[in-house]
Description:
Blueprint: H1 3-14, E1 19-22, H2 59-72, H3 89-92, H4 94-102, E2 103-109, E3 113-115, E4 118-129, E5 134-146, E6 149-152, E7 168-174, E8 181-182, E9 188-200, H5 208-219, H6 223-231, E10 241-246, H7 248-258, E11 264-273, H8 281-284, E12 287-289, H9 292-298, E13 307-309, H10 312-316, H11 318-322, E14 326-332, E15 338-344, E16 353-354, H12 359-370, E17 376-382, E18 387-394, H13 414-423, E19 431-434, E20 437-440, E21 443-446, E22 454-457, H14 458-463, H15 467-476, H16 479-488, E23 504-505, H17 512-518, E24 526-527, H18 529-541, E25 543-544, E26 558-559, H19 564-577, E27 591-598, E28 607-615, E29 618-624, H20 630-653
Parallel strand pairs: 8-16
Antiparallel strand pairs: 1-2, 2-4, 3-4, 4-5, 5-6, 7-14, 8-9, 9-10, 9-11, 12-13, 14-15, 17-18, 17-29, 19-22, 20-21, 23-24, 25-26, 27-28, 28-29
Helix pairs in contact: 5-6, 12-20, 13-16, 13-19, 15-17, 18-19
Amino acid sequence: MTDDNATGSKQRHSMLRSLVVAxxxxxxxxxxxxxxxxxxGEDRQPQQPEVQLRGVESPxxxxxxxxxxxxxxxxAAMAGLFTDPxxxxxxxxxxxxxxxxxxxxxxxxxxxxxxxxxxxAPFVVSVRFVTGDEWSYTSSLSLAEENGRWFVDWxxxxxxxxLRRGESVRAKLVxxxxxxxxxxxxxxxxxxxxxVLVGVVPExxxxxxxxxxxxxxxxxxxxxxxxAAIEAPGVQPDWFLPxxxxxxxxxxxxxxELAPVPGIVFRETxxxxxxxxxxxxxxxxxxxxxxxxxxxxxxxxxxRGDLVGLSGLERVFEPRLAGSPRVEVVRVxxxxxxxxxxxxxxxxxxxDLDTTLDPAVQRAAExxxxxxxxxxxxxxxxxxxxxxxxxxxxxxGEFNRALGVxxxxxxxxxxxxxxxxxxxxxxxxxVVSCPAEIVVGGGTIHNAGGGSLGETTLLEAxxxxxxxxxxxxxxxxxxxxxxxxxxxFGFGESYELPLPVAGAHFPAPESxxxxxxxxxxxxxxxxxxxxMATVAAAVATGEWHAPRLLVDQDAEGRPLGIDVARLQExxxxxxxxxxxxxxxxxxxxxxxKTGSAEFGEGDPLPTHAWFVGYRGPLxxxxxxxxxxSGGGVAAPLAAACLEALDDERAAALAPLAPCAQDxxxxxxxx
Length: 670
C-alpha cells in the first residue's frame, strides 16, 4: 500500500459510515443481550476455520472487517483479525445473533486515530427495539500493528464501555400489570387472583397410569396430554411440567384424591381470573398464552409465551388492558445479579375497563342458568339507561346466545303489535275476537293448544297470548304503521357493543299473510334476547335505549311517543292471571310477556321459549332455545332469576358474620 492509498483510506474513514441491519423480529423478551467473556463453554463452540492469513493491511480495513462482521453476523470473516489467535469469536459475540433477530441495529464508525503502532476507532451502536424505543452508546475499537499487519486488540469493553470479564448486559421487556375489568360499582371482575397450578415431575412418578387416571378423573386432564408433556423432547427428570390451572376452592375439593399420587405436584400462582368459574365468561373473555394466529395479528412487541386476551372484552381491549412494555437494559454480574440499569424506556401503563355489569345481577343470572335447560340465555338491563347489568349464555363452550344471535321472538313481539294497535285507536278494553283458528290472506293461524276466548278484550287477548286476535288485527293495520311501531322499539336500529351483537329486524311484510305472521313475531321477524330486553325496558320507562356495556357509552334514550301505562297494564295482566303466572312473585310486581316462537320443521313445529319483562328498575329477557312453552319454561326461570337477585341483595344487606380465614393448602414441590 502506498502512502497515497493510506491517505485516501483515512479520508474515507473520516466520514461517518452507517452500517444498518433491519431485521423483523420476535419480540424483545427474546432479546437477552449477553455481552460477556466465556459465556459459552469451549465444548459449545463451532470449529474455528483454519487461519491462512492473519491481520489486514490497515487499521481502517480492520475496522471495516470487524464492524461488517458484527452487522452481517459473518463471524467467520473475522478469523485471523485478532491479536489473540485463539480468540473465541462466536462465543464472545453471541449476543449479536439474538440482537439481529430482535431489533434494528445501526453501527456508525468514527475516524481512525493512529498512535505509532496502535490505533483507536470510536463507533456508535444504536438499537431500535420492536417497541419503537431506541438505545445507543459509544464505544471504541483498539487496534495494533504487528509485522506490518493490523489486528483488533479485543476486550469486553469493546462491546460495551467498562464491561469486565464475566459481566454481561441484558435487555428485556417488562409489561405493566394488566388492567382490570370493573363492574359499574368499581368491583374487579377480572384481576390477578390466587390459583393452583397442577402438574407433574417425571422423576417422582411411580405409575404413569395412576397419574393420568387421577388427573383425568378429578380435573378432566386428557391422559394423552399428560403423556405428551412427559415425553416431550428435552424434558428433564426433575422439571415441573404444568398441566392445568385450578381455583383454590376447586383444588381443595380434589386435593385429598390427588396428593397421595406420586408425581403429581401443586404450586401456588397468580392467574387472571373472574370471581367464579364461568362468571360472565362470554363477555369478559379469557387471558391465556398467545396463539400463533393471534401472534401474527398482534405483531411486535408480542412474542411466543406472552399472555394476551383471547376472547371477549379481554381480546377487544387488549391494547388498553395490556398497556405497552418498557425496555430495560441492565448490567449483570457474573453471579447473575443486576448491578446497574443502563437504559429504561417509559412504556405505557395499562388501563382498567369500566363496564355496566352488576356482580349481584350477574351471579343471579348465572345461578339461574345453572338449573336451566340448554341452550339458554338471560339478559338483564337497567331499564332507564339500557345498561347491561347481567348477561349469561349456556353452554359456556359455545357462542353467546344472549347478545349475538337472532331468533324469531314469537309472542313477545305482541308488545309492539299492541303498541301499534293502541296508536291506531284501540284500547285495553276494546272488544276483540279470539277464535281457535283463522285464515289470514290464505295462511292459517292457530292458537297454542287450539284454545279460544271467543269475544274478549284486547287486554285479555294479550294476557292469554291469543295468536288469532293479534294476527288478524295486525294484518288489518297499515303496513307503514306496523313498521313504524317496530322502529320505535329499536327494530332496524344499528347499535354497537364492543362484542358481536345482533339487533332486531322487522322487514316490511310483502303480503297480508306475512303481515299477520309478523304481528305475532313469526315470519321474517328476528331479534336477539338482548334486544327483546330493550323492548321490555322501553315499556317500563317510555323510552327506548340502545343497550350499553361500557359506562362511557351514550345513554340518551328515544321517547316512544305512546302512553306506556296501558302497555304496562297489559304486561301486568300476563303475570297476574295470563300465560306468565309462573313468573309471579311476592312483593314488587313483575310485568312480562311470554313467547313460544315456532322454528324449523316438524308437525307440530318446535318452539323457542321466551319470557321478557321488568320488575322495579330492571328489565330482562329469558330465552331457552327449543325450550317449548314460554309460560311453562321461560317464565319460571325469570322468577328464579329475580328471586336469586333478591337473595343477593339480602345477603349484601346482612351483617357480616365472623368466618375463618381462607388459607392455602399445604403444597408438594417447590
